[in-house]
Amino acid sequence: MSELEALAAEVAQCTRCLLHQGRTKTVPGEGPDNADIMFIGEAPGFHEDQQGHPFVGAAGKFLEKLLESIGLTRADVFIANVIKCRPPGNRDPLPEEIEACKPFLDRQIELLQPKLVVTLGRFSMARAFPKARISRIHGQPRKIGGVLYYPMYHPAAALHQPSLRSTIEQDMHRIPELIEQAAQIAESPLPAEAEQLSLF
């Protein structure tokens, strides 16, 4: 069993917050343990809770199309969420729920050491950019705490606001270039804005 698999088994037994009482399955995340790219969404929805896999609903199908547009599949990337259990009624995650799951996500990033962490949506973005607006910083990579983060709108946003679809597609198309430049970007000085926003 790999360390990521062991961590997933630990997530499956988690009772750190009240969400465990209503879950069907935990959704720890999945993908190769040597993935260059890690996508972090918000929280499992109904289908994710039933199946135990991330991004398997309508937003997941759009994410697969986005990946295909840059020559990738789900099998090429690691996909996780900020929290590992579905909130009731798909409500927003509560601060204490995000905090309870934070050690799991921290450990996943530490084990994966991805070249690029793509945050999908504002709750994922807030991990690295706590005071930023997604409308202002999406598509702008920043090195935060030694990790290159790339904030994007959540794929579900395009389902609710079709006008965002082209923006999300454009941001996704930058990813291959960012992977190629990851080493150089990681060695460059932090932008002043990123210094101010960094949690670390």
In summary, what is this structure?
46% of the residues lie in helices and 12% in strands. With 200 residues, the chain is of the alpha/beta class.
Q: How are strands sequenced across the largest beta sheet?
A: 2-1-3-5-4
Low-confidence stretches: 192-200
The assigned structural class equals alpha/beta
Overall number of strands: 5
Share in β-strands:
5-15%
Helix content range of the residues, please? Answer: 40-55%
Radius of gyration, rounded? Answer: 16 Å
Task: Give the oligomeric state.
Answer: single chain
Largest sheet: 5 strands, mixed
End-to-end C-alpha gap: 31 Å
Number of helices: 10
Could you give me the name of the CATH homologous superfamily? Uracil-DNA glycosylase-like domain
pLDDT average, as an integer? 91
**Given the C-alpha coordinates, what overall shape results?**
globular
What name is given to the CATH topology? Uracil-DNA Glycosylase, subunit E
Give the SSE order as H and E letters.
HEHHEHEHHEEHHHH
Domain count, please report it: 1
Would you identify the CATH architecture? Answer: 3-Layer(aba) Sandwich
Look at the structure and give the CATH class.
Alpha Beta
